[in-house]
Amino acid sequence: MSASPDQFPPVAKALRAAFGTDVLDAATPLSGGLSGAGLWRIRVGGIAYLLKVEPSERDGLRDPHRSYRCLDLASRACLAPRLRYADPDDGVMITDYVEARDHLGPRGDLVVELGQAVRALHAIEGFPPLVDYLDGLGALIDRAARSGAVAAEALAGPLDAWARLHAVCARLAPQPVSSHNDLNPRNLLYDGRRIWLIDWEAAFRADRYVDLSALANVYAADPEGEALLLRTYFGREATAAERARLYLFRQVSHVFHAAIFTAGAAGQARAETLDGPDLDVIHAGLARGEPWLDTAEGRLTYGLARWRAAMAGIAAPAFAEAARVAV
């Protein structure tokens, strides 16, 4: 695509449908996530919007027909920025642009806001099912193992730990809800007043603890924060079974992030061992704006930290207790 996105016919079509003009005041490219989509901050009539153009490659997960439907429902629920235009066949969408700010309040306030947002998200009706989450994760882990980004000997321990985790979680009764499924810090924007959820490519109907565990691992990893997150979400103190289920899915979330960052490093970075900085060190750096995820090497380092966190969580005595109590 040319430097000016309005020269791309589907984008010009989107601009005319959304704003009655295909003339842009400005278009600034933005760095995106791992999906390969093109992102721009555009201005039309002096107002900023976000323009996203999906890559031409489509698969079972990257399906704009599903993800745009989920985005539309979330936008109508005021959880995602207002959707101005979406054409899944063209792979073009336009939303309001949110200028992200640092959350300067107490960490507990942020945990409460996140818990409230996820509770509202899970109350939405209409997200379509896609795959069994654990089965889909298993396929992603297989892709990560075949990627060559991490030496096979180094992945032997994580794969054994995943087999133990999968056996426990597969026997739990599903609790499907409308789920974002990728609530990492880059997909949570704070505008100075509230949290917005963005990037809905992975959204489908999945277990409620997929989103809760993603938040807990980054924002509420300590017992007090975890209890606050669950209390906010459920509107009451969590039961022992609910706390146990969250513990198990926190390990699932570690494995998901480990696998996706490992698979994404294929052909770009390589690690012979799992050694590297601890996860809390990386998360603290990301909170300070450090560019850990801006290079393939940094993203693989993050994936290795997630593998180690999952292995530690599954090896801990708390895992056996959670497996006994969770239902």
Quick one: biggest sheet? Answer: 5 strands, antiparallel
Helix content: 40-55%
Class from helix and strand fractions: alpha+beta
Work out the strand percent.
5-15%
Could you give me the name of the CATH homologous superfamily of the largest domain?
A: Aminoglycoside phosphotransferase (APH), C-terminal lobe
Summed up, the domain count is: 2
Number of helices: 11
Low-confidence stretches: none
Quote the distance from N terminus to C terminus.
Answer: 50 Å
Which strand order spans the largest sheet, edge to edge or round the barrel? 1-2-3-5-4
**Secondary-structure element pattern, one letter each:** HEEEHEEHHHEEEEHHHHHH
Shape: globular
What is shown here, in short?
This protein has 327 residues and is α+β, with helices and mostly antiparallel strands.
Fold topology:
Elements: H1 9-19, E1 26-30, E2 38-44, E3 47-53, H2 64-76, E4 83-87, E5 92-96, H3 107-122, H4 133-146, H5 152-169, E6 176-179, E7 188-190, E8 195-197, E9 204-207, H6 208-219, H7 223-234, H8 240-264, H9 279-287, H10 296-315, H11 317-325
Description:
- This protein is of the alpha+beta class and 327 residues long.
- It folds into two domains: 92 residues, Phosphorylase Kinase, domain 1 (2-Layer Sandwich), CATH 3.30.200.20; 219 residues, Alpha-Beta Complex (Aminoglycoside 3'-phosphotransferase, Chain: A, domain 2).
- The chain has a five-stranded antiparallel β-sheet, sandwiched between helices.
- Helix 3 packs parallel to helix 7 and helix 5 packs across helix 10.
- The termini are far apart.
- The mean pLDDT is 95.
